[in-house]
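Action item from last week, closing it out:
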Amino acid sequence: MSKAKNLQTGHVGLNVTDLSRSLAFYREVFDFEVLAEGKDADRRWVFLGRGSRLLVTLWEQSAGAFATDRPGLHHLSFQVDSVEEVRATEEVLRGLGAAFSYDGVVPHGENGASGGIFFTDPDGIRLEIYAPTGADPADAPTAGAPTCGFF
């Protein structure tokens, strides 16, 4: 019997190189609100969410770019209700000059109904926004494996 009966994901904490730049990006793309922040010169951080729900924390305590060849976070994914919301977010990202892994909305697998967009934040952290339906019918960019696994 599980000791944590109502276990669910809480928030995701990300290290960033420039808190101001990352804060602007995450607020613009995800429409997050600032729930709390630390402004000390050597301890800058921000808690982001919607309403009172904490979703992402940003910590300015790194240098360089996100390393996809190291153990740790693979990617951060957000689900929305419809593929139209995915496409609207794609337009925002294009306006920001974000880098995409694939062109447009792609399914999670061959002829799959769920799918989304795969892109990076200003530090190269891999992100995904997807909808559970609306990405079909289409060929997946990675045959024989989940699209979100190899990008």
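Closing note: The CA atoms of residues 55 and 62 lie 20 Å apart.
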